[in-house]
Amino acid sequence: GSSLLTGPEGLMAKERENLKRLKCLRRYRQRYGVEALLHRQLKERRMLATDGAAQQAHTTRSSQRCLAFVDDVRCSNQSLPMTRHCLTHICQDANQALFKPCQGSEEVPCNKPVPVSLSEDPCCPLHLRLPPQMYVPEQVLAVPEELEAAPTDLYLSAAELQPTESLPLEFSD
Predict the structure, then answer these.
(1) Half-sphere CA count of 112, side-chain side, radius 13 A
(2) Secondary structure of residue 99 in the 3-state scheme
(3) How many Cα atoms occupy the beta-carbon half-sphere of 153 within 13 Å?
(4) What is the pLDDT of residues 82-122, one digit of tens each?
(5) Residues with Cβ < 8 Å from 22, sequence gap 6 or more?
(6) What is the DSSP pairing of strand 113-115 with strand 73-74?
(7) What gap in Å lies between CA 10 and CA 19, rounded to an integer?
(8) Are 75 and 69 in contact (CB under 8 A)?
(9) How confident is the model at residue 48 (pLDDT cuts 50, 70, 90)?
């Protein structure tokens, strides 16, 4: 825009007015004085707050381990998101409602955590009870022996099935 003012021929009145509007539009969203100072301070505070929170969240999340103890030794697994226990020990948390221990069977008890589903008693894949079979294959009917040994004189031979010359044309093959 400044190069237009230095031209040898100068600017016409309409061009000067358009240039003035262009410069105003370029400065339209910029802040000046006290407003600019307050805006810069606000941006700096936000950067410090978000950087600190992101840094803190990253360090706490990476260092969270399961709080369960097995034989007086703390579990070394990472805890599930938003919990204090790993997947193996999640059922020890009394406040959680997403997992239940598998009931197992009478012969083999099982306490493996299973996600709660729509069923009343959730089971692990090992103890899952399948529904009864819906499809029953058809049984092959046994053919009596009397029908298997049918007399052959009831059937016509191939020579007997051939059309004869005495038959009209429409009855022959």
Answers:
(1) 13
(2) strand
(3) 0
(4) 888 998 899 888 888 888 888 887 787 888 888 887 677 78
(5) 1
(6) unpaired
(7) 12
(8) yes
(9) confident
